[in-house]
From TrEMBL:
Its cofactor is Zn(2+). It comes from Rhodovulum imhoffii. Residues 47-415 form the Amidohydrolase-related domain. The modification N6-carboxylysine is found at K147. The keyword Zinc applies. This is D-hydantoinase/dihydropyrimidinase.
Length: 484
């Protein structure tokens, strides 16, 4: 059965043109004028774009004594409602647990996904087993990205020697490390001081994580990646100091990508000063929201290309879960939602204000991500043969974001009351119309795992360059006799 998206304007990362798009067997079959099919979707006045890819989610994740409340069913339903057709979630091994056992748990949870998904592997401890498992994860499980936490001391944090060992192993395997870049030692010290001084509320979470802790850790991770000869992906870049480190590295030819979140782009630190404890605690995440100077830096990075993608870090906790931290901000589960709102919020505040072009919007929400994660053009493209993950975007459709209308399982929304203009009319996941003019028609379990090959072009190029410029012994005629 062929579905034709009619009368729309195709918008990709580099082109904008009028065309119909026909879909057959879950793939894009034809792009051109006056196409016919068994079923038609009217895209008059709409943009036909690659579905969004959210490269950073935590669905049903065990964290800080609880589990994040959106699972693969509600999380991917929320994503589709907002025009996102693929997510990449983090498989998180317990201390001492094999990476493959952790993946089994993620396989079980993800069986409920409504759209396609992939995994990043987290490196939460270091040892021979992790070293060995990495090869299987990359070569047999189709995972080529590994996240390291420089924060969360005593829980997920890894030290610099472990970081260098892990990055070096990933260089050998043609995989890419990711980092959560905050200096965990300093955060732990500042947190203890703040608590001792009676700073127990959610605002102290922000005080404990100043932008310097992020700038320092970002720069450190970049230098370690450079020494290990591997590209680097920095998650949730929230401030100028981190952006500056990434910008500088890129100017020097280092292969580094930065990922700001829609939350950091559009919400600021004033949220933590709200007199309502629940309001402030619901917005506790790491890194915390920043001020306008940092937000402007992130927007400039997206426009200039020094920052590459926009994610959500969707890690949603209910108000009840957030209240675990009443009286001690260090116990408030860290994380916020955003899967349903990333695309409309970025369109409204980016394209709607002239900070981004439509093509840049597609690049940072989809195409760049697919390229970096090495699943392009199966994902992230409007091309014949690509998966028909498509959003038909209505630039005139408007709404005011309200928790009561959302797909997410939690009881609030950090974007509550924000007005957005630009929303999906249809969202297709591998050809299936999961969102039909406001109607949710998602199918639990429809989503498939997207395997991603190692040795992406950037990894290959960097390994070649590193091999060429590796330290070599100087060949000498003879060695002088020792003085003894
Ligand atoms: N970001 C956050 O606060 N929670 C999710 C886990 C992480 O990415 O650090
Ligand atoms: Zn993180
Ligand atoms: Zn995260």
């Amino acid at each position: 059965m062929t579905t034709v998206i009619k009368n729309g304007t195709v918008v990709t990362a580099d082109l904008t043109y009028k065309a119909d798009v026909s879909v057959d067997g879950g793939k894009i079959a034809e792009i051109g004028p006056d196409l016919k099919g068994d079923k038609e979707l009217d895209a008059t006045g709409c943009y036909v774009m690659p579905g969004g890819i959210d490269p950073h989610t935590h669905l049903e994740m065990p964290f800080m004594g609880t589990y994040s409340s959106d699972d693969f069913e509600s999380g991917t339903r929320a994503g589709l409602a907002g025009g996102t057709t693929m997510i990449v979630d983090f498989a998180l091994p317990n201390q001492g647990e094999s990476l493959l056992d952790a993946l089994k748990r993620w396989d079980n949870k993800s069986a409920r996904a409504n759209c396609d998904y992939s995994f990043h592997m987290a490196v939460t401890w270091w040892g021979e087993q992790v070293f060995e498992d990495m090869k299987t994860v990359v070569q047999e499980r189709g995972i080529n990205t590994f996240k390291h936490f420089l924060a969360y001391k005593g829980a997920l944090m890894v030290n610099d020697d472990e970081l260098f060992a892990s990055f070096s192993r990933l260089a050998e395997l043609g995989a890419t490390p990711m980092v959560h870049a905050e200096n965990g030692d300093v955060v732990a010290e500042l947190s203890a001081r703040l608590l001792a001084e009676g700073n127990t509320g959610p605002e102290a979470h922000a005080y404990s994580r100043p932008s310097q802790v992020e700038g320092e850790a970002t720069n450190r991770a970049i230098m370690i990646a450079d020494m290990a000869g591997v590209p680097l992906y920095v998650v949730h870049v929230s401030c100028e100091e981190a952006h500056e480190a990434i910008r500088r590295a890129r100017m020097q030819g280092k292969r580094v990508w930065g990922e700001p979140l829609i939350q950091h782009l559009t919400l600021d630190e004033s949220e933590y000063f709200n007199k309502d404890w629940d309001h402030a605690a619901r917005r506790v995440m790491s890194p915390p929201f920043r001020n306008k100077k940092h937000q402007d830096s992130l927007w400039a990075g997206l426009a200039s290309g020094s920052l590459s993608v926009v994610a959500t870090d969707h890690c949603a906790f209910t108000t009840e879960q957030k209240r675990f931290g009443a009286g001690d901000f260090t116990r408030i589960p860290n994380g916020t939602g955003g899967l349903e709102d990333r695309m409309p919020m970025l369109w409204t505040h980016g394209v709607g204000t002239g900070r981004l072009t439509m093509n840049e919007f597609v690049a940072v929400t989809s195409t760049n991500i697919a390229k970096i994660l090495n699943c392009y053009p199966t994902k992230g493209a409007i091309l014949v043969g690509a998966d028909a993950d498509i959003v038909v975007w209505d630039p005139e459709k408007e709404k005011t974001i309200a928790a009561g209308d959302q797909q997410s399982a939690i009881d609030y929304n950090v974007f509550e009351g924000h007005h957005v203009k630009g929303l999906p009319r249809f969202t297709l996941t591998r050809g299936y119309v999961a969102i039909h003019d406001g109607e949710i028609r998602t199918r639990e379990g429809y989503g498939k795992f997207v395997a991603r090959e190692p040795n992406a072009p950037v990894n290959k190029a960097l390994s070649q360059w590193k091999a060429l410029t590796a330290p070599r012994p100087v060949i000498r005629r003879g060695i002088p006799a020792t003085g003894v």
